[in-house]
Structures are given as structure tokens and as C-alpha cells.
Write a structure and sequence with these properties.
Elements lengths: L2 H16 L9 H8 L8 H11 L5 E4 L5 E5 L6 E7 L4 E7 L5 E6 L11 E6 L2 E8 L8 H4 L9 E3 L5 H5 L7 E4 L4 E4 L2 E4 L2 H17 L2 H4 L5 E7 L7 H10 L3 E9 L8 H4 L9 E5 L4 H13 L5 E5 L7 H5 L6 E9 L7 E4 H17 L9
Parallel strand pairs: 3-12, 3-13, 13-16, 14-15
Antiparallel strand pairs: 1-2, 2-12, 4-5, 4-9, 6-7, 6-9, 7-8, 10-11, 11-17, 14-16
Helix pairs in contact: 2-3, 2-6, 3-6, 6-12, 10-12
């Protein structure tokens, strides 16, 4: 068989494989958030996207010293509902430049060290972006014992092609941050991949929910005051949620984050539960979750024919929900999660239908609230 005869079949296979799933239009707001670079404490790009899309639709809009974005619709409503989705992400921060011009870094957020070497990264500097590559000693130069070990953070570096320290420092500065150079892409149908679905998708959900609630016909029937918060610095200790919950003073809150989809090899359902892409929002039950809020979310999903999954968590969750729940005198807090594969890696995978169903669920939940309902059980 010749190469000429193979190629038509190869191209046909790719085309047919891509047609197995119906394509879904991706919202521009979501794509721009996913492609923005916003390590914790350096969220400016994501802030600008959220400002552009959400501020014009809000009755009230504010920014705070931690970098949160706080958008309100129906400000005279009761009860006060807070929706929170963080828009910060993992990153690398430059700590040292060697005499030979190599950049040494530390991590922002919870990295899997196996994922770091051999990546193209974009360093955010005052002068613009600088491209670099994360390096370590090649496998050929490791002895058998070294090959079995993960390199420590200080044993890796970023190569920007500089010839020495002075040249490197003319292009970057200590304290500059870097992100992996992996942007949004559709894999097939409604399945997408991006560097930071965790949790730009959640920030999109709370922003888009407010946009839809602000529509005139919907707003006229809305009883609650809805405050959508794109929270900062979640990956380093739910800091933005801590301060914004204090200032918003909600009666009820729902955090939106990503959760582990376990529909892939090497996921033991006995340990991690059974959740899947395309199965709908994951509604959490557990010690961190107000039962009234959970039950209302489930009721809204059932009435709206919105697919959903239940996840259980026996302890305070690793999300903004744990900070909001104990703000001031306590807040009736729920959590919905977007199913996600390969969390905290450069190429996370999710389903656009799950994101859209999260928006629909929160719209229904907000519209279901009546005056005086504060989630007390």
C-alpha cells in the first residue's frame, strides 16, 4: 500500500470520527475566560473578560482589593443569594535567575510535578509575554534510580533562550508568573479541552447566570437579590470567597467549581464515586452542604428536566463553599460542580452541555426563591 493510497483513508477517518458527536456552539464569554491567564493573585486578564461581559448587565458592579468581581441584579430583592465561581488558576512564579540565564520557579497552587517538565509556558511581564520551556535533565542523563523519582521543583527551570543572567533580567523580572501555553480547543462535539477549566468554567457559569437573570422578562419575576462573584485566589486558600462573602452578607450561597469525572480508566468508583462527563451538574451532599439548599437544587433540576448527578463529600470541600459557609453568622451554602477529567493538568477536559446545564440550574434556583427563604433547617 502506497502513502498516496493511505492518506485519503486517514483523512476520511479523522473526518468521520469528528462527526460522531453533534457540535455545540461555544460561548465567546467562556472561550475568552478559558484563554485568559490568571494565576492566583495575578488575575488581571480574567478580570477584564468578566468586566466586559458582566458589568453592562448588572445593576451594581464592584471590584475589591483582593481582585474579586461582584455583580448584583435586583438589589432590593430578598433573600440575598450569592453565586461564587473562582477565576484564578495554577501558575509558576519566578524566584531566581542563574548566571547562565535559566529561570528557577516555585508553584502557585497544587501542581502535579510529573506534569511540569517539557512544557511551553508564557511568562507575563510588564513588557508583554515571554515564551519559555520548562526543562530538566534529559532521561538519557539519569541513572536507573533517578529515573524512578519525580524531580523536585528546584531541579527544574524555565529556558527562555537567554545567554546569561543580565539578558534574562532584561526580559523578565523576579516575581513574574507563568502559565502553561495550552489554550481552548474543541476535541469532538461538545467535549472541550483547556488549560484552566478549573475554574474559569465556574466563573463563566455565575456570570452567565446573572446575565440571563438580568433579562427584563426574567427580572420582573425575580424575588431574590442575586450577587454573582468571580472570586480570586481560591487556589491558594479560598481567600477571595472569604472576603467577598463577608461583604456581600448572603442568606444563601451556591459555589460553582469543577468536580472529578470518574468515567475514565484507573478510577475506582468505590473510592471516588461514579460521575461522568455529560451527566449534568454534580450536586454535592455532605457536611459542608446545607440540606435545604441541596434539596432545592435537586427539586429545581427535576422540575426543569435538567440532568444532574449527586456527589458526596464527608468533610469541608476543597472549594469556595467551605469559606462561604462559615462567613459571619453562617450561610446556607450549596455546591454544584462541573464534571472534569484530568484536573490540575495542562489539558483538562469537560463537556459544554454540563456547563450550560449548570447555568440553567442556577437560573431556576434563583427564580425559585421566595421572600423570607433563608435556608434555615
Amino acid at each position: 500500500m502506497t502513502l498516496a493510497s493511505i492518506l485519503p483513508f486517514f483523512h476520511s477517518s479523522i473526518h468521520n470520527g469528528g462527526m460522531r458527536k453533534k457540535s455545540v456552539k461555544t460561548p465567546e464569554f467562556l472561550v475568552k475566560l478559558l484563554n485568559s491567564r490568571s494565576p492566583s493573585g495575578y488575575e488581571a486578564e480574567a478580570q477584564a473578560v468578566f468586566d466586559h461581559h458582566v458589568e453592562p448587565k448588572a445593576d451594581l458592579y464592584s471590584r475589591d482589593p483582593l481582585g474579586n468581581r461582584i455583580a448584583t441584579v435586583n438589589p432590593d430583592g430578598d433573600p440575598v443569594l450569592m453565586l461564587a465561581g473562582h477565576f484564578d488558576e495554577l501558575g509558576l512564579i519566578i524566584m531566581h535567575v542563574s548566571k547562565d540565564g535559566f529561570l528557577y520557579f516555585d508553584t502557585i497552587g497544587g501542581h502535579d510535578r510529573i506534569m511540569i517538565p517539557g512544557r511551553r509556558v508564557r511568562i507575563c511581564t510588564r513588557k508583554g509575554f515571554v515564551t519559555g520551556v520548562t526543562g530538566k535533565r534529559a532521561i538519557h542523563l539519569l541513572n536507573p534510580d533517578e529515573r524512578k523519582k519525580l524531580p523536585q521543583i528546584h531541579e527544574m527551570w524555565i529556558d527562555i533562550g537567554a545567554s546569561d543572567r543580565n539578558e534574562a533580567l532584561s526580559r523578565i523580572s523576579i516575581g513574574d508568573v507563568a502559565t502553561y501555553d495550552h489554550d481552548f480547543e474543541v476535541i469532538a462535539g461538545s467535549r472541550i479541552t483547556a488549560r484552566a477549566v478549573d475554574n474559569k468554567a465556574g466563573a463563566y457559569v455565575v456570570g452567565e447566570t446573572l446575565i440571563r437573570l438580568a433579562a427584563t422578562k426574567v427580572k420582573k419575576t425575580l424575588k431574590s437579590r442575586v450577587v454573582s462573584v468571580a472570586t480570586a485566589q481560591e487556589e491558594i486558600g479560598v481567600r477571595g470567597a472569604t472576603t467577598s462573602a463577608y461583604s456581600v452578607r448572603p442568606h444563601i450561597a451556591v459555589a460553582v467549581d469543577v468536580g472529578h469525572a470518574t468515567d475514565h480508566p484507573d478510577a475506582d468508583h468505590r473510592k471516588f464515586g461514579d460521575t461522568k462527563l455529560g451527566g449534568g451538574p454534580m450536586i454535592c451532599r455532605g457536611a459542608n452542604i446545607n440540606p435545604w439548599v441541596h434539596d432545592r437544587l435537586v427539586s429545581c433540576a427535576e422540575k426543569g428536566n435538567i440532568p444532574f448527578q449527586i456527589e458526596a463529600d464527608p468533610r469541608p470541600t476543597g472549594t469556595d463553599a467551605r469559606a462561604i459557609q462559615i462567613s459571619r453568622g453562617g450561610v446556607a451554602t450549596g455546591l454544584i460542580s462541573i464534571p472534569l477529567r484530568y484536573m490540575h493538568t495542562p489539558c483538562e477536559v469537560c463537556d459544554l452541555n454540563d456547563i450550560e446545564n449548570c447555568v440553567q440550574l442556577l437560573v431556576a434556583f434563583a427564580r425559585s426563591l421566595k421572600k423570607g427563604e433563608y435556608g434555615i433547617w
